[in-house]
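User: Teach me something about this protein's shape.
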Amino acid sequence: MQILTSYRLESGALPEEEAIACADSVCKLIEEWLNKKGAKNLSSEGGTFDSMTPSAKGTFARRKFASESGVVEQIVLQEPTKSQQLFTTSIFLITEPRNVCVFATLSLKSAEASIAPVSAHPRCPNFIQEILRLRSSWHFGDTLLPSPNVLRMNGRERGLALAANIIDPNRTLPVVVISEIEEEPVWADLPEKLALDLAGLAFVARVDEEASWALTDQLGKTLSCYLGAVRLYWPTTSQSVSAAASRSRVWTASSLLSNDTDGKSATKFRSALRRTVMSVAALTLEPPPSIRRIHAEVSRARIASLKARATEYSEELELARLYAEENEELREQLEEARKDLARQTARADAAEFALEQAKAPSEEAEITEGTEHTTPVSGETRFYKKIHSKPSHDVLVQISDCGHNYWQSANKADKAKKGIERLEHSNDWKRLSHCGKCQGGGVWKVEW
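Assistant: First, the predicted structure itself:
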């Protein structure tokens, strides 16, 4: 089994009645999610339901443990996938006298005995998003958790505040910054969709041009993000800019759009970024210790209940005691095995991440070297992709050759021509052609 990601939400200290009300609200949201999945008769300890996968059945199970220090409710939902795999969502709702905690994991395993790669494209469960919307005080450690909403960081002051947060050694969650090009991101709905994708795991900030300049002024080009670029900033324990730079990854607008020949690159990019952040969460987010503590207290209470009965049950009592000790030991071993599996998965993802960086070193160079945009020279051919439109012109980004050979005359493309002229500060081209095969925005070939 491969753990794809983990979530941990803690309410912090609450009045006892508010904690109970909060737990009831969370439980209701989880049950609504189960109902939408098709699971019925939720008062039972489990059952089957018709999965969204055609001709397949899913299962769910519920268990509850209560001790003097709290209550743990465990819900496990399993669904088959179209690719013959079993997707499992495991949820723990822990209610203590003054605290509520939700711990959830998403995992995947092959439904058949085979040695084959596990294809995973996890998404943030809807119930996590809804629980985060329930109250604004959910946190992980001392950090307030991000909601499913985008942070709009407009203006120099907000940009400086974001820069300070990026190099703050006390930051414990990733930050994804999405910059604008002519007041829009490279894909119109990218910030909102990434905020939903990474809810509870990473902050997603959209910055305007002023905020981008503030980032550059404060952090330098090694940590900058501008002209439609997207950058992922991992937490760092050092306030050094160089340390933060080594823990970041940038995707320029040109690199994001150069492979967008089918109009699906935004979806692919979101999936890759989700997988990157989620796999790290699977490694670093540990189950709250209160789960094991309450389980242990329940086991001890059951043994004490047996002991308080008659002496003729002494043999059964000893078996129960041994079972409880063995069960606790197995829980520890299972937790260690899961941690080791998460570590191995994270190493594989880190290797894949390093390989991606080695393949595309020009992305970092393009945004860190700070070279001026050069004017096209006679005989040069450049390619441009439209990302959005203004009333007077199209907004375009220079990209690599799309590789198609479906160029059509574009004599009447007035807004595209104005956009190219605005970008290159020149209209001295010989021929302008439009690709008849590229999707997701027009692609133009310009021969200067």
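Now, about its shape. Residues 314-359 form the longest helix (46 residues). The radius of gyration is 27 Å. If you'd like, I can walk through any region in more detail.
User: That's plenty for now, thanks!
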